Amino acid sequence: MSVSFCIAAFFLSSTSAFASAEKMYVDKSKVVDILESSTVYHDAPTTSGLVRVEKIDNLAGVDKSTGKIFDKKAFKDSLLKYYSSDKVKYSENIKNIDKTIESLLSSKSNSSKINSEIVPFYSDGQVIMQGWSKEAKLISSENRVTYKTSWITEDNYRSSVPITATYTKTSSVSKSIGFEGDAEIKAKFGFTASATVSQSTTISQGADVPAWTVWGTRPYIKYKLEKYSGEYYYTIFAGGSLNTYYYNKTGENYILITKSNEYWSRTNTSKSTTATTPTPPTGAPNV
To answer: How many angstroms from the chain centroid is the CA of residue 73?
Structure first.
């Protein structure tokens, strides 16, 4: 084999190996994905809990036939006039009025056409204000208990000889604890979503039951129920109109106090073999 052929073969072999190495290379640098900005579009609320609707007239700078804002300054002045009706309530809106108008101008709702009536369904309306028109508050609080009316028992009421339970008996009860209701109430007070808690009681196989005795147990869950209520408003711009919707918002928060078992027993003091076994109570636990 000639020297030149060997050199050429070595060169080709090295080049092929280098190309293979290039194909096998994997870029393991970390990829970072961050949010730079975002726009959130809202649908109008449903009629659930709707109390009343207020139409805000005399918005200047808006084409009533198309809903398009054609005079930014006139529109701003008329909107500012509305905000000025309650400078405390709308202080944040006054401060952010330019941002609100720019958002309205860029939104697809700016060119939407709707009729001149108050319509509580805007598929593409934009929420520009929202808050509590009547502050949400606690309206009632009560202690409650969830329990089984039936008991699991071992009956040795008419026997002079202690007995042993021959099989395991279990009774359980459950309750949803946490918040149920409107999202605005949940957000205001920082409540957590509801979750189920359970309590079980057991008579185990092999348990001893004394002579002349009937013995029983049942589970219960004690909790506090707090009810909240308030009035919430949304002001929505769509089709050149500004409307405010007022809603009753309610919610119930269930707070766990304790979960435990109640025990009950009776003794046959007369030691009568014909005595009737007493029946445990079906009312609320004595807790």
So the answer is: 41
Q: Which value, in Å, is the radius of gyration of the alpha carbons in the chain?
A: 36
Instruction: Give the 3-state DSSP-derived string for 94-150, with helices as H, strands as E and coil as C.
Output: HHCHHHHHHHHHHCHHHHCCCCCCCCCCCCCCEEEEEEEEEEEEEEEEEEEEEECCC
Cα–Cα distance list, 192 to 116, 178, 222, 254 (Å): 41, 6, 19, 10
Distance in Å from the first CA to the final CA of the chain: 103
Query: What's the predicted TM-score (pTM) here?
Result: 0.69
CB-CB contact of 154 with 203 (8 Å): yes
Encoded tokens for 114 = 């709707």
Tens digits of pLDDT across the chain (287 residues): 554 444 444 444 544 444 444 555 556 667 778 877 665 555 556 677 888 887 776 688 887 777 778 888 988 898 888 888 888 878 888 888 888 888 777 765 444 444 444 444 444 567 778 889 899 999 999 999 999 999 999 999 999 999 999 999 999 999 999 999 999 999 999 999 999 999 999 999 999 999 999 999 999 999 999 999 999 988 887 766 778 889 999 999 999 999 999 999 999 999 999 999 999 999 999 88
